Amino acid sequence: MSVALAKEVLTIESEGLLAVRDNLGEEFERAVDIIMACPSRLVVTGIGKSGLIGQKIAATLNSTGTRSFFLHPVEAMHGDLGMVAATDVVLAISYSGETSELNRLLSSLKERQTQIIAICGKLDSNLARHALVTLNVSIPREACSLGLAPTTSTTATLAMGDALAVALLNRKQFGAEDFRRNHPGGSLGARLKVAIREVMLTGERVPSVTTEASLAMAVAELNEKNLGAVFVTDDQGVLRGIVTDGDIRRLLSAGKSLENTSLAAGMTHDPVAIASDLMAADALSIMQQHEITVLAVVTQERRLAGILHLHNLLGKGEFRFLI
To answer: What SMART domains does this protein's entry cite (predicted)?
Structure first.
């Protein structure tokens, strides 16, 4: 009974996220432009559950290169408003858009001519009217069986904050090394400081076939090693290509069969690779730049030495040093 209810909650929340995604448009680009043009800080504000979500959004923004802080609406009206500079941009969060404590703060911010971006579920609300841009997080229904407790709406708001942070991260070209500098004491920061050879997979764990293999044989190796890719090497062990899950899907979508397609035709030639003596932070930057999750590790002669998966960098379960 409880498992079935939990699955229903997750289904309702996923439907809410899809609705928010489908509503995204020009206003999101405008919000990113406004924050990018801000010469000082992004001030995040909200109360209750929206305030708790706002604190997390502010923390994510700070860690990904957008200076931010959280301002409690009530404390703001009792002196903390002095923390807000004229050049700041305010990100105000309220699903209803009619939260009285937040609305009182909005009036004061408008008097200061502060630019306001709203994350709101009601586009005809007071908050939306005060805002220069409103990011719509309207959802079909809450997951709460009473329809009262913020559940789907807070998930949608949190996701919108993540979308903003990632969009800003990419616009600022904020890289793995920048992220590491902001996380010197965290586990991720520690992972990114190590050499690639300490976290890469080697030996029989590396999915690979030779250039003489068939595409079907490459797919069998792909399935067995389950890392999303298989490398193709010549008889000297030099890296010549890669076949990914995506390559196979594209072939099948084009109506081609594995039996009638050669390995050379199905693989990507001369794939991106990295040397084992570089740092994990370098690998993460390359993955981010090329939008890939698997990286070949090669020697100076470009012989295949190992494989590095995104999970090896960011962690999947317990992080291990591999030998």
So the answer is: CBS (SM00116)
List, in order of start, the domains of the chain with CATH numbers. 2-174 (3.40.50.10490), 188-314 (3.10.580.10)
Q: How far apart are CA 268 and CA 281, in angstroms?
A: 25
Element (H, E) at 90: strand 89-93
Which residues fall in the annotated binding site?
Answer: 72
- Contact status, residue 174 vs residue 65, Cβ threshold 8 Å: yes
For 267, list phi and psi in degrees, rounded to 5. -105, 165
Q: Are 224 and 207 in contact (CB under 8 A)?
A: yes
Rounded CA-CA distance 105/175 in Å is 35
CA quadruple 81, 83, 84, 89: dihedral, nearest 10: -120
Query: 307 with 203: CB under 8 angstroms?
Result: no
Q: Residue 135 — left, alpha, or beta (φ > 0 → left; ψ -120 to 50 → alpha)?
A: beta
- Asked whether the beta carbons of 263 and 218 are under 8 A apart, the reply is yes
Is this model's pTM higher than 0.85 or not? no
Question: From first to last of its 323 residues, what are the pLDDT tens digits of the chain?
Answer: 789 888 988 999 999 999 999 999 999 999 999 999 999 899 999 999 999 999 999 998 988 888 889 999 999 888 888 888 888 999 999 999 999 889 889 888 888 888 999 999 999 999 999 899 999 999 999 988 776 688 999 999 999 999 999 899 888 876 666 565 555 555 555 566 678 888 888 998 899 999 999 999 999 999 898 888 999 999 999 999 999 988 888 888 888 888 888 999 889 999 999 988 888 878 888 887 888 889 999 998 999 999 988 877 766 543 343 33
Distance of CA 67 to the CA centre of its chain: 18
Query: Which amino acid would we find at residue 286?
Result: I
Dihedrals phi, psi of 226, to nearest 5 degrees = 55, 45
